[in-house]
Design goal:
Heat Shock Protein 90; 210 residues; alpha+beta; 18% strand; two-stranded antiparallel ribbon; five-stranded mixed sheet
Length: 210
């Protein structure tokens, strides 16, 4: 496959913009909560502000931990990442009262780019079920060349716009902070020597990398 038409500096800038976009909401909520604490004397209002700060801090921490692995260097060249750690990070970021993960992958060390690919595909799977649902992650093969499939089921599950082309590295033009993430997943698949795809399967969205 020929190299994608995007400069390294542009890729880095767009990924940084994506991470900042994810963090703006919880960080902003923390700031708002602190302002309320400083200005309001009503005990009930202060308690509400404290709960907002606690919740937003947990959200920001979960997002930072996820982004550190999904987008960051995650160790030296050739490093491996424990799939058990990846599961913990993914659950902390993606699970809530509407969305659940069924994680069927074994506890094993896998090349960091494959784990980064897995986490990035989970992000796309989450976008495929905007009203929540279940994401089921299964292995394909075993050992160092293990791949995976993610089946996302939920109300109005649908393939996110342009996701198939972006995963296939066929839509480099017009990339922005929203579209860079599935394109980056395609780059990770290319670097890992696997083929990544997304498609509807009945009422479910299925992502594969193997």
């Amino acid at each position: 496959m020929s190299g994608p038409a995007i400069e390294a500096l542009d890729l880095a800038a767009l990924l940084c913009s994506r991470v900042c976009h994810d963090l703006i909401s919880p960080i902003g909520a923390i700031v708002n909560g602190l302002e309320v604490l400083a200005e309001e004397k009503d005990a009930e209002t202060q308690q509400f502000a404290l709960e907002l700060i606690k919740k937003s801090s947990r959200t920001a921490s979960a997002k930072l931990q996820f982004c550190r692995i999904a987008f960051g260097a995650a160790g030296s060249a050739g490093a491996q990442i424990d799939l058990g750690d990846a599961e913990t990070i993914a659950r902390g970021f993606l699970e809530d009262d509407k969305t659940r993960l069924t994680w069927n992958l074994p506890r094993a060390l896998l090349a960091k780019n494959r784990v980064k690919l897995l986490l990035n595909l989970l992000l796309i799977a989450g976008q495929a079920i905007p009203r929540g649902g279940v994401m089921t992650i299964d292995p394909v093969g075993s050992g160092e060349t293990m791949g995976f499939t993610i089946r996302a089921t939920g109300t109005n599950a649908r393939v996110p716009p342009h996701a198939a082309d972006l995963l296939a590295l066929q839509a480099a033009e017009g990339l922005d902070a929203h579209r860079i993430q599935p394109f980056y997943a395609g780059l990770l698949a290319q670097a890992s020597g696997v083929s990544a795809a997304i498609a509807m399967d009945g009422d479910a969205v299925v992502l594969s990398a193997h």
